[in-house]
UniProtKB/TrEMBL annotation:
It comes from the Bacteria. Transmembrane segments: none annotated. Residues 126-224 bind DNA. The lineage of its organism: Bacteria, Bacillati, Bacillota, Clostridia, Lachnospirales. This is Stage 0 sporulation protein A homolog.
Amino acid sequence: MYKILIVEDDQTIAQTVAMHLEKWNYKTKTTEDLKNVLQEFLAFEPELVILDIMLPFFNGFYWCQKIREVSKVPIVFLSSANDNMNIVMAMNMGADEFIEKPFDLTVLTAKVQALLRRTYSFGGTTNAIEYKGALLNLNDAVLTYQEQRVELTKNEFRILQILLENAGKIVSRDTIMERLWENDSFVDDNTLTVNVTRLRKKLESIGMTDVIRTKKGIGYLVEL
């Protein structure tokens, strides 16, 4: 489940957008303290931000710049200040999309889905893998699930990545060991067993039980 932060001072618009996106199985949060948007961003750790330009205290350009200093998360501007100068300014500040008010919720949802797909998809230059509400960050080997984070060792990370990339398929022990060897992780059969056991315990510690199934004499499976 992707998390979306909505930075909007009009509560009617904010709640309407939030309720609509939640129907599409996104987890949303509307900013409560518009003086401290960056702190709320860091605490919520969203995968996408929807941001208005005209805000009290500091405008959307300011907060876009602040977010860009710490994150590459997709940012969508949603604003009635839709003259060419503001659109160009938004893009120059690091925005990924600009949607004019008034807007159609269906169009907004489609653009949000497209941005998330491009940013977190399995193909191409993906930097994250999503699995049943969990997000494996390929940049820092951190797994996030239900607002809990767990850091993985190099081998644990590679094993989980291989299994998630092949979700629904049995991956043989030999295949996993070959992939680990390609990345200078020299493991034997016993070492692989130890790493899988530790990985399972870390998954269970954040509520992800029975994720990795053993297929005796063959390998491991993560079910779709």
